[in-house]
Design a protein that fits this description.
alpha+beta, 416 residues
């Protein structure tokens, strides 16, 4: 035990005797580890921010709007407009086994909302009660639309956070009334703020029962069909069957409107499941690239330590010869230099990890911008850094130590 303590003491004295050289060597490893953690942490911040943006829409939400289909089979120039209808929604709900939930919506952006205090603009959307089970619409005050509101065509409204701030500044909204193009609606709920940053589009929306919207504010410029809707939101029964659900919906829409379901250009839609997967692959590739850059920097730092330790062996050739002449074994010499290299590597790596964690800690939980959360320390990357440090420490200590141990005492003593 005393021998080990003596070796550690000698290591510290040697490193202190060459402070500048030791400091510059440690900087390379610390920079490599710190940059690895920071770069991957930044990538995770982007990933987390984008995930939150998609979560603000809802889980596994899929959209389909009215579109344009060829007038004749195989035609790519002559297109006709078709409009989604309430019948399309009912058929999707009844005939698509992979669809777990669906909701029709009528959206208008030309309806003026007026309270006793101010007026506001923004989208008014007519939706059934199930809509908030598909989309993320958390209630701050009051309640959401229920089945009775919809079936009885009640003139009730749930307003977004920004609409509430505009129409009822500092005043209670629940129980108050809002005029929508002159028609009086009672406020039954206020939504929590959703989205991030300055994106207020989601918070400028108000929601009324679907059949109430259909009675008072039908879509305009959509032909003569009485049951036209703006879009359908639906969810697959599980993430794994989202492609099957999409194909089933395509077949229903194409059958009802008389065109080929195999023509993807005939559908105006957004599959958020596919988008999330694609974004995830992009961030995986980015993390791999950033991690590789950090590992290369770490490897260069390890090479620097090996080089410095080889220089140390050359500088201390006479010391090695003296120690071997008075009985030091190859093992003790090798252990001495191995400890110096490994200690230098692990100490500088620990400084790098601490520095990266210290830089990221003040930003914890802070949103740096739309779709960009604060960088965070990723445990898997930290574990990879520790493993890399262990390998680098062994490489940085073992090879120079072996060179030192193999020196013949007579040859070592003869060198100045």
């Amino acid at each position: 035990m005393r021998l080990i303590l003596d070796i550690f003491g000698q290591t510290l004295r040697t490193l202190w005797a060459h402070k500048l050289r030791s400091l510059l060597t440690m900087f390379g490893i610390a920079w490599g580890v710190g940059s690895l953690l920071l770069l991957v942490g930044l990538g995770e911040g982007f990933r987390s921010g984008n995930r939150k943006q998609f979560d603000s829409l809802g889980e596994n939400v899929m959209f389909i709007w009215s579109g344009r289909a060829p007038v004749m089979q195989g035609s790519f120039t002559a297109l006709r407009q078709y409009y989604l209808t309430y019948r399309d929604y009912q058929d999707v709900l009844q005939e698509c086994p992979s669809v777990g939930a669906a909701a029709p919506a009528i959206s208008r952006g030309d309806i003026r909302s007026v309270s006793d205090f101010f007026q506001a603009s923004g989208q008014v959307v007519g939706v059934p009660a199930i809509f908030n089970q598909i989309r993320n619409l958390p209630i701050s005050e009051g309640r959401w639309i229920n089945e009775m509101d919809d079936s009885q065509k009640r003139a009730v409204i749930v307003i977004g956070d920004e609409v509430n701030r505009t129409l009822f500044p500092g005043k209670p909204a629940i129980g108050s009334t809002v005029l929508l193009n002159g028609i009086r609606f009672q406020v039954i709920g206020v939504l929590q703020k959703v989205g991030h940053g300055d994106n207020m589009n989601l918070n400028l929306r108000s929601f009324v029962p679907f059949h109430t919207m259909q009675q008072y504010f039908r879509p305009f410029n959509v032909g003569s069909a009485p049951d036209v809707i703006s879009f359908i939101n639906y969810q697959p029964k599980s993430r794994a069957v989202h492609e099957a659900a999409k194909q089933e919906v395509h077949k229903i829409i194409a059958r009802n409107h008389g065109f080929d379901p195999n023509n993807p250009d005939s559908f105006d839609e957004w599959d958020t499941v596919k988008t999330v997967d694609q974004v995830g692959k992009i961030f995986d590739a980015m993390n791999l690239f950033l991690g590789s850059v950090g590992l290369v920097t770490l490897a260069l730092g390890a090479i620097g330590i090996i080089n410095i330790m080889l220089v140390a062996v050359a500088d201390r050739t006479r010391e090695i010869g003296l120690r071997k002449a008075v009985g030091a074994t190859n093992g003790s010499i090798m252990f001495q230099f191995f400890v110096e290299g490994a200690f230098l590597t692990l100490l500088s790596g620990g400084i790098g990890i601490a520095a990266a964690a210290g830089l990221m800690a003040p930003f914890s939980g802070v949103e740096l911008g739309p779709g960009f959360d604060a960088p965070r320390l990723v445990p898997a990357t930290a574990a990879l850094a520790v493993l890399s440090l262990a390998i680098a420490g062994i490489a940085a200590g073992l090879y120079p130590a072996r060179r030192a141990a193999m020196l013949a005492p007579v040859e070592a003593l003869r060198k100045e």
